[in-house]
Design brief:
Layout: H1 8-14, E1 22-25, H2 32-46, E2 52-57, H3 63-76, E3 80-86, H4 89-99, E4 103-106, E5 115-122, E6 126-127, H5 134-147, E7 158-160, H6 164-174, E8 183-188, H7 194-201, E9 213-218, H8 240-249, E10 253-257, E11 264-267, E12 273-274, H9 276-293, E13 300-304, H10 310-317, E14 321-325, H11 329-339, E15 343-345, E16 351-353, H12 362-373, H13 380-386, E17 391-392, E18 396-399, H14 403-414, E19 418-421, E20 426-430, E21 439-445, E22 451-458, H15 461-475
Pfam families: PGM_PMM_I (PF02878), PGM_PMM_II (PF02879), PGM_PMM_III (PF02880), PGM_PMM_IV (PF00408)
Organism: Agromyces binzhouensis
Family: Belongs to the phosphohexose mutase family.
Length: about 475
């Protein structure tokens, strides 16, 4: 059967509907008209007519208008919209989980100010990807753009709710920070939604008791133009202000949140970045111990294939089960449910919790780190070093004119020297003798750009650097 012909609307939507979310430049393919059609299509796909749908948004200038347009489309197809207003992405997961309602969050996460987008959830904060409903939403929205949104006998209502206090209270029940030693913490919200959630969860803004934390705020003013730096802590350039502030204030550590505050990055008292894999290993041990105390014999912990080798080693060393997965939040949410995993960690600082409906929550990961760090006296640099025994390159992106050709060069150069697997892109694990240092690398072509993404790990810095440079030379030849 031939695929349906692409209308102008379908082609337009294909430019903004990505593998796990919607993302695009405001005023180009992403307009209020498109968003309204997506709202209507979302209700149809998740079967929400007659039920509630949660809609939240970040601080970008276009976000309130887009949230309103989406709510109109959703209500037109019969859903009762609960508009929760300004919030972090993980607040929408909380609302989706606690209300058992589908949700849409308007944010472009860490992208620059010109962008916006939508992160969707099924009821219970479950993910949606192209393979599990997002393609159907896209195609139905295209039909609505071409032919209009059909009226239903009973359109839904739009009401407003504020869930921030309930969200903060819920996180406080999951991690007890009341008994830790006093800590001085610099927090860089990057003018993103952390400026709203940090005072509520770690401070007293939501009416909760004070914690033994002195929070030094950096860029807490909500501003979708990002006047200080992009809210993308994965780029080292965006950590510079936080690192400087930690040193200036003599702080115990620093936390940096991305624009929608669902990811949290950490720097130690020396201003040096803590690897997300180290955070994943620390939180994994805490969650394994917690459920073991409740009688769970073999807890499962998920890690994607780009986290440090030390993450599965840590999980398995305490008798838990490590499950290796591809990269991607909707995929990992599905695997969390399938395996009943207690925790999941990604190299990109996304951390997933069974007790948070299997969804990711950077704030909750930060709280676990504060609890663990605050229960002992060593500096964070010392604690971090114990969980970072190997050398990692971080993700290195290369613009490549002919991605398949570069991919072929790598395969030819390393055949016979490595064991390959293709779980996600190409992972090559070095075939080494027992007395030789281990190494591995992963190369993943981007789904949307002419890029190859490289991650390398070695048992020591010299080994990692040599493999990194060899693979990069092949990629950029």
């Amino acid at each position: 059967m031939n695929p349906p012909a692409k209308t102008g609307a379908r082609a337009r939507l294909e430019t903004i509907v990505k593998a796990y979310d919607v993302r695009g430049i405001v005023g180009e393919a992403l307009t209020a008209e498109v968003v309204e059609a997506l709202g209507a299509a979302f209700v149809d796909e998740v079967g929400a007519a007659g039920d509630r749908v949660v809609v939240g948004h970040d601080m970008r200038d276009s976000s309130p208008g887009f949230a309103e347009a989406f709510a109109r489309g959703a209500a037109a197809r019969g859903a009762d919209v609960v508009a929760i207003g300004l919030c972090s992405t993980d607040e929408t997961y909380f609302a989706s989980g606690s209300m058992h309602a589908p949700a849409a969050m308007f944010t472009a996460s860490h992208n620059p100010a010109a962008y916006n987008g939508i992160k969707f959830s099924r009821a219970g904060a479950q993910g949606i990807s192209l393979d599990t409903g997002l393609a159907a939403i896209r195609d139905r929205a295209a039909e609505f753009l071409d032919g209009g949104i059909p009226a239903v006998p009973e359109p839904g209502r739009i009401t407003e709710a504020d869930v921030l206090a309930e969200y903060a209270q819920h996180l406080r029940t999951l991690v007890d920070l009341g008994g830790i030693r006093p800590l001085k913490v610099v927090v860089d919200a990057g003018n993103g939604m952390g400026g709203l959630t940090v005072p509520a969860v770690l401070g007293e803004a939501a009416g909760l008791p004070a914690l033994p934390l002195e929070i030094i705020p950096l860029y807490f003013e909500l501003d979708g133009t990002f006047p200080n730096h992009e809210a993308n802590p994965l780029d080292p350039a965006n950590l510079v202000d936080l690192q400087r502030a930690v040193l200036e204030h003599g702080a115990d550590l620093g936390l940096a949140f991305d624009g929608d505050a669902d990811r949290c990055f950490v720097v130690d008292e020396r201003g040096e970045a803590v690897e997300p894999s180290a955070v994943a290993a620390i939180v994994a041990l805490r969650e394994i111990a917690r459920v073991r105390a409740l009688g769970e014999a073999e807890p499962v912990v998920i890690h994607n294939l780009i986290t440090s080798r030390f993450v599965p080693e840590t999980i398995e060393a305490v008798g838990a089960v490590a499950v290796r997965t591809r990269v991607g939040h909707s995929l990992i949410k599905d695997r969390m449910n399938e395996t009943h995993a207690v925790f999941g960690g990604e190299h990109s600082a996304h951390y997933y919790f069974r007790d948070f409906w299997g969804a990711d929550n950077g704030m909750l990961a930060a709280m676990h780190l504060l609890a663990e760090f605050g229960s002992q006296d060593a500096p964070l640099s010392e604690m971090s070093a114990r969980f970072t025994p190997y050398a990692m390159s971080g993700e290195i992106n290369s613009t490549v004119a002919d991605v398949p050709a570069a991919y072929t060069r790598i395969v030819e150069a390393f055949t016979g020297r490595v064991e390959f697997d293709e779980l996600d892109g190409l992972t090559a694990t070095g075939i080494t003798a027992e007395d030789q240092p281990f190494w591995w690398f992963n190369v993943r072509p981007s789904n949307t750009e002419p890029l190859l993404r490289l991650n390398v790990e070695g048992e020591d810095l010299a080994t990692m650097s040599a493999i990194r440079d060899e693979v990069l030379a092949l990629i950029r030849a």
